[in-house]
Specification:
Layout (H helix, E strand, L loop, with lengths): L7 E5 L3 H12 L3 E5 L15 E2 L12 H9 L6 E3 L5 H12 L3 H27 L12 E5 L2 H18 L4 E4 H7 L10 E5 L3 E2 L2 H14 L3 E3 L4 E6 L5 E6 L2 E4 L2 E4 L9 H4 L6 E10 L10 E3 L4 E6 L2 E10 L8 H14 L10 E9 L6 E4 L6 E5 L5 H17 L18
Parallel strand pairs: 1-2, 1-13, 2-9, 4-17, 5-15, 13-20
Antiparallel strand pairs: 3-8, 5-7, 6-7, 10-11, 11-12, 14-17, 14-18, 15-16, 16-17, 19-20
Helix pairs in contact: 1-7, 1-10, 4-10
Length: about 425
């Protein structure tokens, strides 16, 4: 690429992945336009719990997950739920998920996830230290809290794999030690927890605001309420422009970072994208007077409590309901009821935000970072499951390397689209 005549790239999707891609492409010398059909981060980023999670290197496809997960999906008031419907894409996705619930595939996926997580940790540090990005980052670790001793003991197997394979250490805290370590918990409400000191958290809204400011100062154009309809392509198998509700945008290359919406572009991309929207919810409110010192994951319910510097958020649950846009009070109530089970001051008023977003779930737990089979200058960067914030910087850097045709800092084959055809 000639630095005197920068090539132009349009990044479609302004969540964490698209924002990171725009930043690293700009650093690589591209002229960048970042577009989003809504406002920046409005999809799966702005209302999530803000965790940076090396502890989540293992995917959901652990051995034995099929029976547990599928039984849970059809029950009410559980962390996972499925809205019964005739949806062949969902059932195909579940079949692919089930096939990967074995140790070999679990560890292969974990290798790819861990590589992105490790790289992102280093890049987040660079962003804070070299670029001055104020994202309310806190190295407070994370507590995986267990209601019953059986779950606490079982998590020891996960902790052992993470330490032996990836060097991720965890410390077991039994009930008495946990209650001293985290005074916000109710007495006798738990059997104990596993503490992952290497985890961290940030406020997603602060990340997006600070990063956008950095982007615009560096010359990146950000267009909101810009809905991409289709690609214009030439006879050489390249996209030359995208048609949007704001007119035609021409470019030399394109990045599709549209998260759970990516399968909607199946025809344009020339491939079936095996991503299901996993609907998550959150409630944001003022910080309690007796706030947790650390982010808490209540493992049985899979609900997260995150103490920000200037607020507090309860979030999680997973609902496979397609692209249903209804904010269901019952799912929000699960968040509050779970917090009431464990915490002295579980929630506060007023509720500042009731939110939902679609996590882009792939059947093996790894994202897709690969070129479109139909349009060779279009790169897909989607499917980060529940770890978009955790994997964003490394993904953005990899996107820039692949489009710039420079040596990638991570092996991109782990994130190829072709893996789903094998």
């Amino acid at each position: 690429m000639n630095p005197q005549e920068p090539q132009h790239v349009v990044v479609i999707g302004a969540g964490a992945i698209g924002t990171a891609s725009a930043w690293y492409l700009r650093k690589a010398g591209w002229a960048v336009t970042l577009v989003d059909r809504d406002r920046q981060g409005r999809g799966a980023t702005s209302g999530n719990c803000g965790l940076f999670s090396p502890s989540h290197a293992l995917p959901l496809t652990v051995p034995g997950a099929v029976g547990v997960t599928l039984r849970s999906l059809f029950r009410r008031k559980t962390p996972l739920s499925i809205r019964p419907r005739l949806d062949f894409r969902l059932w195909a996705w579940l079949w692919r998920f089930a096939r990967r619930c074995n140790e070999r595939d679990m560890l292969a996926a974990a290798e790819g996830r861990h590589a992105l997580i490790t790289s992102s940790g280093e890049l987040y540090r660079e962003l804070r230290e070299q670029e001055g990005l104020d994202i309310q980052w806190q190295d407070a670790g994370c507590l995986m809290v267990h209601k019953h001793a059986r779950g606490l003991d079982a998590h020891g197997e996960t902790a052992a794999i993470l330490e032996e394979r990836f060097g991720i250490e965890a410390r077991r805290l039994d009930r008495e030690e946990l209650e001293e370590f985290e005074p916000a918990l109710l007495p006798n409400a738990t059997a104990g927890a596993w503490f992952y000191e290497g985890d961290a958290h940030m406020r997603p809204e602060a990340l997006l605001a600070a990063w956008r400011n950095l982007l615009e100062k560096s010359g990146v154009e950000v267009r909101e309420s810009c809905d991409v309809r289709t690609f214009v392509q030439n006879s050489q198998g390249e996209a030359t422009a995208v048609l949007t509700n704001q007119g035609e945008l021409k470019a030399d290359a394109f990045v599709v970072a549209t998260g759970a919406w990516t399968p909607k572009l199946k025809k344009e991309l020339g491939a079936s994208i095996p991503i299901q929207p996993g609907k998550g919810y959150s409630l944001t409110m003022p910080r309690p007077s007796l706030s947790p010192r650390h982010p808490l994951i209540f493992e049985r319910e899979r609900v997260v409590a995150t103490p920000f510097k200037d607020g507090y958020r309860l979030g999680s649950t997973m609902e496979f309901a397609g692209y249903n846009t209804k904010l269901r009070p019952a799912r929000l109530n699960v968040l509050k009821a779970t917090a009431e089970t464990y915490l002295r001051e579980p929630h506060t008023t007023p509720i500042e935000q009731k939110w939902y977003g679609w996590r882009p779930m792939t059947p093996d737990g790894k994202p897709i970072v690969d070129r479109s089979p139909r349009l060779k200058n279009v790169l897909i960067a989607a499917g980060h499951n529940m770890l978009g914030l955790t994997m964003a910087p490394a993904t953005g850097k990899l996107v820039a390397e692949l489009l710039s045709e420079t040596a990638p800092h991570l092996d991109p084959t782990a994130y190829s689209l072709a893996r789903f055809s094998r």
